[in-house]
Amino acid sequence: MRIPFAQIDAFASAPFTGNPAAVMPLAAWPDDAVLQAIAAENNLAETAFLLPDTSGEAEFELRWFTPMTEAALCGHATLASGHFVLSGDPSIDTVRFRTRKAGVLEVRRADDGYELSLPAWAPFPRELPEIVAALGAKGVVETLWHPGRYALIVLENEALVRALAPDFRVLAAKGNILTIVTAPGDSTDIVSRAFAPGAGIDEDPVTGSAHAVSAPYWAKRLGRESFTAFQASQRGGRLTCRLEGDRVILGGTCVTVIEGVFFL
User: Fold this and answer.
1) Is 127 a catalytic residue?
2) Is the pTM for the entire model greater than 0.90?
3) 124-245 is classed in which CATH architecture?
4) How many Å apart are CA 118 and CA 77, to the nearest integer?
5) What is the CATH number of domain 2-119+250-263?
6) In whole angstroms, what is the distance from residue 139 CA to residue 114 CA?
7) Active-site residue among 46, 115, 158, 203?
8) Would residue 200 be called left, alpha or beta, if left means φ above 0 and alpha means ψ between -120 and 50 degrees?
9) Residue 19, CA distances (Å) to 118, 204, 230, 235 in order
10) Element (H or E) spanning 153, and its range?
11) What is the pLDDT of residues 234-263, one digit of tens each?
């Protein structure tokens, strides 16, 4: 079997920035074990698999796999999938993806990049002392939780977010949790980092789903629905955030860095 393969840096303005994702179009779904093995072979934060949708709800079905598990939601690999489809067909401006746990997601052209529509997953206050301790976090303002296994830790300032040196072994022992640490930014409205060692990703470079959780919090705290964001990983990535009712709209650009064929 020959499967087309593209590696795309999402939320990136140039190669080697943003978050890389593999995008692989399929004609039919193989066994889940095969999808998981391919994602492990790719060894990227996410591999996105898409095939034409026959339900009428969207143009494509979309699933995401980390090297260790299937993800319920992945923003950067959805943006990369949108880039893959739209860059291959200049006649269309919007593409919809039907997912298994996050509903229908849409990517559309916007200026020189794209906008990605995700569900707004507002977190609620909850004490998370073990996660805070594993992060070694200082200056904690608030801790929140979303039932999709998202932990949101709000710190006083950007310097504290950048200074974090988490104990990934302890975080991994908590299971498949995406831990998001955020604060007011210096050059953007907000800054964040995201950690998911329980899913095989110690630190995720730029995380769309993290902003689906943090954007409702920040919109309320900032008193406005639109703001800028920077994810302060080693690769780094800038994006815009906008809360529209029950949706979070993320803006960003993509760069294709590899194209080829996966032999199976």
Assistant:
1) no
2) yes
3) Roll (3.10)
4) 12
5) 3.10.310.10
6) 35
7) 46
8) left
9) 17, 8, 12, 8
10) strand 150-155
11) 999 999 999 999 999 999 999 999 999 999
